[in-house]
Structures are given as C-alpha cells and as structure tokens.
Amino acid sequence: MAKKICDAHELRSLSSNIQKPEFPVEIGEMYEGERVRKPQMYLEFGGMKADTKWELVRTRKEEELTDARIIINGPDILELKEGGSYPIGILVEVAGDKVENDIAGVLERRLHYFLNYIQGVMHVNQRYDVWIRLSTDSYKKGLNSLEWFGKALIWLYKTSFPILKKVQVTFYTDTLQVSENLNAAMKIWTERDERARSLMDEDVEDFYGCIMCQSFAPSHMCVITPNRTGSCGSISWFDARAASNIDPTGPNFAIPKGKAMDIEKGDYEGVNKIVQEKSLGSIKAVSIYSMFENPHTSCGCFEGIAFYIPELDGVGIVNRDYREVTANGLTFSAMAANTSGGIQSPGFNGIAIEYLRSPRLLRPDGGWKRVIWMPSEIKERVKDSIPTDVVDKIATEADAKNLADLKEFLIKKAHPIVERWSEKKDEESDSLQSVQESIQPGSETIIQTPMLQLPSSGGFKIILKNAKITAEKIIIKRLEKDKA
Q: What single-letter DSSP state applies at residue 395?
C-alpha cells in the first residue's frame, strides 16, 4: 500500500501570520454552494457508489502531532481512474493549549464549509455519508493531489480558529484502511451522541440555529434542540453551543425559545421569529417535531427521510445508504427531491439517525406507533430506543417489499396502525351517516369543489384534493353568464 507524507512548511508559522499558500485553483467563500454535476466530474470520493467513507476530527496533545503534515494512505488522485467513485477517510487532528475535546464535533462539521471553498470541489453530507466531487476543469488546472486538499484544510482551520496551534491531516483511500478506521470513528460518534441524550428541551432556555447549508438551500435553517439533532447528524445541542461560543459570527447561534405555543409539536415564538428572519420570510413557522404541520425544512445533507405512506396511513424511515426501493415503491434519491431545498414538504422530513433515539420523535404524529417500515440496518442500530411493544411490529425489507406485503405484515403483527385504521373507518362511517341523514330523498345536492378546471374545449377535468364523497347522483352544470 502506498503511503505519502507531505510537510507544508509554509503553514507552520503562528496562526496570525499564516499567509495563503499558492494553489492551482481559487479558494474562498464565493465557491461555497458550487455544484459539480456528473458531466463536469473528474472523479468522486464517497457518495452512493462507495461502500465506505467517513470524515472525523480529533483533538490531541501538541506533542502527538507534526504541524502542517499531510499523510495520504493509499492511491492519490493521479493514480485513480477518471470517472470513478472511490472510498475515502479524512482524519483531521488538532492541538493547542486551549483546545478542548468538546469542540471536535464543531470542527468536524467545518469540513463541509472548507472543502466547498475550493474551486471545483463539491462536498455534501458528513460523518459516514461523505460525498466529494472534483471537477475536470480544476483537475486540469493542477488540483490533482489530495496534498492540495490537505493544505487547504490546514490553512482554513488555522486562520479560522487561532486556538489551533497544530493541524495534521490524513487521507485514507486504501479500501481496507478506510473500513478499519470507520469502526473506530463510529465509537467516537456514539460517545458524542450519548452525551447529548442527557438533556431535555425543558432543561434549556435556548435552542440553536445552524445555517451552514444555506449555500445549497437558501431558506433552510436547522433548529437544534436537546431532543433534535441537526438533520446532518453531526451537530448536537452541545456542539452548536460550543460552536457559537468559539465563533460568535459563525453559522451556529443561540435561539431564545420564547413562548411555547405547543410543546408537543415544538412550536415556539422565538424559533418562528428567527426562522422567518433567516429564511427572508420564506418560512413563517416551524413545528420542530411534526412532519405534517409546518414541518422542519431540510437542505440535502440529511442522513435519512421520514416519509408518509398514505395508503396505510403510516410512516416509513429510510437512510441515505439504503439503495433498494422502499415499500412505497420509491428510492431514497427519488424522495430526497421532495425533501431537500429548504422547502416545507408535509409528509417528507429530512432527519438525522440520532433523532430516531429522541423521546420526541414525531410525537404529535404518533411517534413510533406511526412508524411501519424501515431498513433492517437502521432498525438494528436504534433498536434499543424503539418501544418494546412495537419494535417487532415494524417491518423491514426482509418482511415487506411492497405495500401489499406490508399491510399483511402489519395485520399479522397487530401493529398499532391497524387500530388506527379501524378508528378512522368508524369516524368516516359516522360522518357518512350524518351526511346521508341530512339529504332528503329526491333532493338535488350541489357540491362545490375547491379546484375546478373547465377548459373551453376537450371536455373538462375535476380535481378534488383530500376529499371523500359518497352520493347516489352528482350533477355538474356549466353556469350560464348573466344576460345583460
């Protein structure tokens, strides 16, 4: 296995005196949000086609690091085939006398910012879902080695955070090493997440906002609470608090909760005020814990999607790495189009996998008793957080691959959703009986629809939204214009 060690001596000065090194391409905030489409791509690291990928920041003692050192374990860009998708592991190690372990998660999420600052580089997602694309134009300009990526990261970290006295970056592209180090990274992320579970929303006065992804979704802002991790999965309430303290003008900031209008839904006056400001009025209100009423927006970095299955009145969960078709006949990528972009899409909610452990998971929508399908991998990961009376009643791809199979499974297991079907049926029956009793025999009933399109030619089309109608006869008449 090839191993390359590069020392960027020019980046070893004190942070206040660091000069921007020479790069083959431009680096700056103006390139944040730049998209590299497939026709423009030279190659990519991570993404859906790479089985293993990750990025991690760790704090160290100063004597444990060589400042401004870049290590490449495995083939470099020049040794990789154009158009390919490759595994990647990025380890950034930092040290300084004022560096505390609490800021590791904060610095880790900045990888998203900093890699996107490089012209011709697109970075999305985080932790074990990393996806990085390099454009052909930037490759031809000389961005042909991970050494340049390392230099950019070192320079950006040290100039953005003066408390960092030493920064060392290691890239793993050898498949075996990427996989081996992922296991260690997962343990570190688990420890961070477990700490964040010790708080409840009621225990704090402030929530936190994150607008790190507004370059991709201008109207999106993550509302981070003790009970709802950022949708990317990498920013907990503790992380956001630390980030706002060490970088007061950065993308993370405190949100005074203000008056609680509905704790169950997660409706707060203070949150709505900030949401309106940061979305420039595009989003008026957010119910933090509902996927149907004023749902939380998403950018595109979410780890998973909670999606409504109307045929069964239940909720499915799918993670980004699940590559098969879900029980509703759609793939993750197909549903992601309805979930991302900073818009509110009732029935589609971008979520972090850690949110599945929250005691407030979709609470106003039924919580776990509304969840009817999820991939077995994710179910196994969060199994200890699923209520024992429902855990075996939630189907996976091994139990149901389509809606017919899913319905059969839910009935067989007596999932709580089955009782919900009965309750709804009784309500509809009572409603129908009331309507029938109000209609006199032989009378003519006129139904005015909320949306009615009558073209001048070619017949007409009636569109009824969210309506159920039972009648012996419907008479539709074109109204004549009033005669002068």
A: B
Q: What is the number of alpha carbons within 13 Å of residue 125 lying toward its C-beta?
A: 20
Higher pLDDT pick, 285 / 194: 285
pLDDT in tens, 69-94: 999 999 999 999 999 999 999 999 99
Average model confidence (pLDDT) across the chain: 87
- Taking the C-alpha atoms of residue 94 and residue 166, their distance in angstroms, rounded to an integer, is 6
Q: In this predicted structure, which of 8-17, 44-53, 328-337, 427-436 has the lowest mean pLDDT?
A: 427-436
Q: 187: alpha, beta or left, given left = phi > 0 and alpha = psi -120 to 50?
A: alpha
185 neighbors 236 (Cβ within 8 angstroms): no
- Do 132 and 45 form a contact (C-beta atoms < 8 A)? yes
The neighbouring-strand residues paired with 164 are: none
- Residue 93 tokens read as 């190690």
Q: Which domains does the chain have, with CATH numbers?
A: 3-191 (3.30.1650.10), 197-302+349-365 (3.40.970.20)
- Return left, alpha or beta for 442; rule: phi > 0 is left, psi -120 to 50 is alpha, else beta: left
DSSP 8-state assignment for residue 296: P
378: its two tokens: 């994710």
> Given phi > 0 = left and psi -120 to 50 = alpha, else beta, which region is 233?
left
Q: Minimal CA–CA distance to 257: which of 227, 295, 217, 291? A: 227
- Got the DSSP string for 185-228? HHHHHHHHHHHHTT--GGG-SEEEEE-TTTTT-TT--EEEBTTB
Q: What are the backbone angles phi and psi of residue 308, rounded to the nearest 5°?
A: -80, 140
